[in-house]
Amino acid sequence: MVKTACVSIITGILLICSTGCATQTDSITAKTQSIDDGTYTTKEITDAFPVGTPITTYIRKEEKLNVKQLTSITLTDGGVGRVLEATDGFVVVCGNEKGVFDVLIFKNMEDVKKYEQNLKR
Asked: Which N-terminal residues, if any, form the signal peptide (predicted)?
């Protein structure tokens, strides 16, 4: 009787653990897929490159994450705005030789171009 109860408890625990592990594996697979094809949301990009990120860290992360950089824009203070494509818009990561000093989100490329034009005025 005690033996049967122990076997039942152990079997139940194994089933629960294997179900939990399958869920975690699916989540990891989804994240890996996102990294492989370089598609991210604006939130994921802004979380990956917060203000204060050193430039060497930015470059290393950008290459590792395979983020799609469409173009760069020249900023008024001599910095560079790297235009990154997201699934739900565009992120401009503003930086200089020290690191990231601003991160801007735009809905479409037209808004990015308007922002660039306003900088030139």
From this structure: 1-22
pTM for this one? 0.68
Maximal CA-CA distance, the chain: 85
Interatomic CA distance for residues 54 and 56, integer angstroms: 6
Tell me the per-residue pLDDT of 29-57, one tens digit each, with 9 for 90 and over: 444 444 456 789 999 999 999 999 999 99
Domain ranges of the chain: 1-37, 38-120
For residues 114 and 108, give the distance between their C-alpha atoms in angstroms, rounded to a whole number. 10
Is the sign of the CA dihedral 2, 3, 8, 9 positive or negative?
positive
Report the alpha-carbon distance of residue 39 to residue 94 in Å, rounded.
20
DSSP tally for the chain: helices H, then strands E: 4, 4
**d(Cα 44, Cα 116) in Å, to the nearest integer?**
23
SS (H, E, C) 13-42: HHHHHHHHHHHHHHHHHHHHHHHHHCCCCH
